[in-house]
Design brief:
By secondary structure, this protein is of the alpha+beta class. Helices cover about 30% and strands about 50% of the residues.
């Protein structure tokens, strides 16, 4: 298992940050490699199939939103072969024009990914940092 907490300050008001975070149409603009996000189920929890492309490799991931009570809570799970990821996001108003985004992340691995993850654990954290940084840049532009 791998767990970590990331924080980033976004220089935009909370309301604007939340409106952008909720807008699934702009996901590909700040999530590298995301080709599509298709709603599979709406009840009991919204579930999406995400398709990413990295180089020649395409990957499918299932996203399930377990709790959407923004700005205090946006919790979801992300599954792909050998990897189960839980992310708990919180957005906090900081002064009049900025927002703190806190993301608590947990990865669980199975099968061959248990071995691979030992050598890649820094890469998982870096990928999360890239996503948060990309979102910050997108919102602030």
């Amino acid at each position: 298992m791998l767990t970590y907490r990331l924080e980033i300050v976004i220089d935009k008001p909370l309301e604007e940050v939340i409106a952008t975070f909720r807008n699934r149409d702009v996901l590909p603009l700040w999530q590298p490699g995301l080709l599509s996000s298709e709603l599979l189920l709406s009840q009991p929890y919204p579930t999406y199939q995400l398709i990413f492309q990295f180089g020649r490799r395409k990957m499918k991931m299932t996203e399930t939103i377990l709790r959407d009570e923004l700005p205090a809570h946006f919790d979801g799970t992300y599954k792909m072969k050998g990897v189960f990821n839980t992310v708990k996001n919180t957005f906090i108003k900081e002064g009049s024009g900025s927002t703190l985004w806190v993301s608590d992340v947990e990865f669980k691995f199975s099968g061959l990914m248990k071995i691979i993850a030992i050598f890649m654990k820094d890469d998982y954290r870096k990928q999360s940092e890239i996503l948060m940084s990309n979102f910050k840049k997108y919102v602030e532009k």
